[in-house]
Task: inverse folding
């Protein structure tokens, strides 16, 4: 990772508007601070388990929620007015939004961001104009990245908002729509390559179906695999060295989404031989919608060498859709950090917030508070997980549950050396296995002991 200057100047081009004039650079003030615009736990340069916090966590701001999401929902329009939105002037707004975004990243001291093509630049009158708009904004974003040393964690294409994608993008039954999806992915990949993106994401919001009566599922999956492999080939031929990521989600907007969860995506990738280039971007709120914990999904991805990156939001346990809240659940943060530390870290991935302030959180400072809160939650999770691994007997206790595989016949089994008959013979010659406690409450109490 590149070293960042200790005091990064807040770069405002001469005459450029400052969008958050009342907010200065956010600093670490420690747990006792009452300043909502300060970090209580996130101390970017503090070394934990061998590297600075910022390298463990690699935060990335989600362009769409933070700078485009004004709070509209199915029952009413947006509630937030953003000073970078200039009514009736989409390109001017896009440039203003870019300035606001980089001011925000710099003041928050976050090193990465993520975008969809349509977050960065508006859709034009036709394919050519849309491509041109994105090119112009990419050029401007590149200058901003160079000035600030903020980097692109991933780019992606929005293949779900426009009505043309209502029956799917890569899996649309109409070939013409598939070509429109391809033109967007090509342009978004070009932008990601130009901006040095570490990853490129596919979230298949409309890749799925509502009724099997009108759907040839196998055919649509075959098309999806062809589409992804062509995107991979184009990316590699044009210098993309990063990782392609699939983001699973079980439902919403489609009833049955093809990329249901990590295990489903792993089997899809292996079935179509895509597993070398494609890994997984795991989102907490999507994990819980699939009936899994975030930790379960992350562990599953590591198991199959499919771990890519994270969308670190959270859902609401009392409803069944994607609420994309900022992570405030400390237990989740500890548990995922235990898994990540034990598995050796994020590698080329990062932690994209993919979260929005609530519809009635309408002050501009609320977007800072939301991000600061999530960063502190994860920092706290990291500190606690590190202490648990260093000071408690958590690892030993877990290891001891499997001690019968460390020697003799148990070890032979793990080395693949015992057949079913031999195993059965062993059983006939030993007495009833001992009852051995799983000690779940003890494990849980260890976690809580370290939450100070
Ligand atoms: C929506 C997804 C989306 C992806 C990027 O539920 O989480 O925001 O992260 O397209
Ligand atoms: Ni997401
Ligand atoms: Ni989501």
Result:
């Amino acid at each position: 990772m590149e070293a960042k200057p200790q005091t990064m100047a807040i770069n405002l081009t001469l005459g450029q508007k400052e969008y958050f004039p009342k907010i200065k650079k956010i600093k670490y003030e420690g747990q006792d601070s009452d300043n909502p615009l300060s970090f209580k736990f996130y101390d970017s340069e503090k070394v934990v388990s061998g590297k600075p916090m910022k390298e463990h966590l690699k935060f990335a701001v989600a362009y769409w929620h933070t700078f485009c999401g004004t709070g509209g929902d199915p029952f009413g329009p947006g509630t937030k007015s953003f000073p970078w939105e200039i009514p009736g002037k989409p390109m001017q707004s896009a440039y203003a939004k870019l300035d606001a975004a980089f001011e925000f990243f710099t003041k928050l001291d976050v090193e990465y961001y993520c975008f969809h093509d349509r977050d960065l630049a508006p859709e034009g009158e036709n394919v050519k104009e849309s491509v041109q708009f994105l090119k112009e904004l990419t050029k401007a974003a590149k200058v901003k990245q160079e000035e600030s040393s903020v980097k692109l964690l991933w780019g992606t294409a929005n293949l779900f908002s426009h009505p043309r994608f209502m029956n799917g993008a890569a899996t649309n039954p109409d070939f013409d729509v598939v070509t429109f999806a391809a033109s967007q992915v090509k342009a978004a990949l070009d932008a990601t390559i130009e901006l040095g993106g570490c990853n490129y994401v596919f979230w298949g919001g409309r890749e799925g179906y509502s009724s099997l009566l009108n759907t040839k599922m196998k055919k649509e999956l075959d098309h999806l695999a062809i589409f992804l492999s062509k995107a991979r080939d184009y990316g590699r031929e044009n210098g993309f060295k990063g990782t392609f990521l699939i983001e699973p989600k079980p439902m919403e907007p489609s009833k049955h989404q093809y990329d249901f969860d990590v295990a489903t995506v792993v089997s899809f990738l292996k079935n179509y031989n895509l597993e070398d280039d494609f890994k997984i971007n795991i989102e907490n709120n999507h994990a819980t919608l699939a009936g899994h914990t975030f930790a379960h999904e992350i562990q599953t991805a590591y198991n199959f060498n499919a771990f890519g990156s994270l969308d670190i939001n959270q859902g609401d346990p009392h409803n069944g859709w994607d609420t994309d809240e900022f992570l405030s659940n400390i237990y989740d943060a500890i548990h995922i950090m235990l898994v990540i530390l034990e598995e050796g870290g994020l590698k080329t991935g990062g932690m994209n917030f993919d979260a929005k302030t609530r519809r009635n959180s309408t002050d501009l400072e609320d977007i800072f508070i939301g991000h600061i809160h999530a960063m502190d939650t994860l920092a706290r999770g990291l500190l606690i997980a590190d202490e648990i691994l260093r000071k408690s007997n958590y690892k030993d206790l877990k290891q001891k549950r499997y001690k019968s595989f460390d020697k003799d016949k148990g070890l032979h089994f793990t080395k693949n050396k015992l057949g079913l008959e031999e195993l059965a013979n062993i059983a006939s010659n030993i007495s009833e296995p001992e009852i051995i406690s799983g000690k779940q409450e003890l494990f849980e109490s260890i976690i809580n002991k370290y939450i100070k």
In short: The chain has a mean pLDDT of 96. The two ends are 31 Å apart (CA to CA). The chain has two domains: 6-391, 404-449. The chain is about 45% helix and 10% strand.
